[in-house]
Amino acid sequence: MKKKFKILKWILGVFLSLIILLVSLFFWIRSLIPPRDTNIVSSEAKNIAYITEDVPEYRGKILAVVTSTDKMGTSDESTGYELTELARAYYVFKANGFEVDIASPLGGKPPVVIDDEDMGKYDYAFLNDSIAQYKANNTQKISNVIAKDYEAIYFVGGKGAMFDFPNNKAIQSLVRNYYQNDKVIGAVCHGPAALVNVTLDNGKPLVENKTVSSFTNEEELLLISDAKSIFPFLLQDKLVEEGARFNAGTMYLEKMSHDKNLITGQNPWSVWVLAETMISELGYVPKYRPVTDEEHAIHVLQAYENNGSEGAKTLLNQLIRDEDQPVNRLLIAKHGILAAMKGRLGRFFSLLNLTSYAKDLEEQE
Questions:
Q1: Beta bridge partners of 246
Q2: 128: which residues sit within 8 A by CB, 6+ positions away?
Q3: For the ranges 19-33, 89-103, 289-303, 321-335, which has the lowest average pLDDT?
Q4: CA distance 231 to 225
Q5: How many CB atoms lie within 10 A of CB 50?
Q6: pLDDT tens track for 50-60
Q7: Does pTM top 0.90 for this prediction?
Q8: Residues of the chain above pLDDT 90, percent
Q9: H or E element at residue 105
Q10: Looking at residue 288, what DSSP letter applies?
């Protein structure tokens, strides 16, 4: 009886120790995250110099295309277009002299996905922009779009695009028309679903032998384990099946592919570089834009991938101490949590330590 009591006591002690450890870990992680800037919600385009100052003369129009699908297949999971993927490209195009129209397969008001944790000042500015909101809530029906009216087309991501982009005849016609007439085509995250099932006049798939990027299988399956049964296909697999040279970067980090007039991005963190590359492909030098704190965090995470913790710390010192640039610590911490989800505990603690290092640098400054 005493022996059983000792075992029970030992198990209880271990259990309590684990609880204390987890609670301590939770509060440590929480202490690394800066308080949210509540003023950001009221951001307005008119107060952002990049959008309003030194805007070139009118250069034409770009069409942004968003999904009309609000549910993921037969599941009850809601979806739509990703607001950040529309808003950031929208303002890059506007700041560089282009008017932006928005279309969708069904027209009218499309479903939108807003992730508060990913929202920055440009995203809230988009929500507070009456003209942008009118366009976003009253989209053109894609079948009514006149191709010659636009200098380029940009397909916004969002999981809904996997359902209503691939088999839409109007989208296929526009993509074929633009590609064969050397007009610029951009697509990000799930947006490249607009490129599959497109056959050129020579009978070959559009993406055959083209270098492309999109949301990867790894990124899809980490958060949606049953994605293969929910979606009609995995986008990476479909692009490869049609002959694309798939260009995958590190999970949830910036990655863009540029193959002549076809410009594709892997995920939401690729929007800035993709939109500015579209401006370059249109024949213009992109206007200077202050790099965001989120982009700085992505660059730090890429430095971590390439050169480990010391390389990332070197970049953090350069950005925070030498250049007084903001770095989004939350994004670094979230990548640590993603590592934990994959069972990579060493990477988890390494990225949290990196987040702590960034916090210490900021407090010193």
A1: 212
A2: 42, 43, 44, 45
A3: 19-33
A4: 11
A5: 17
A6: 999 999 999 99
A7: yes
A8: 82
A9: none
A10: P
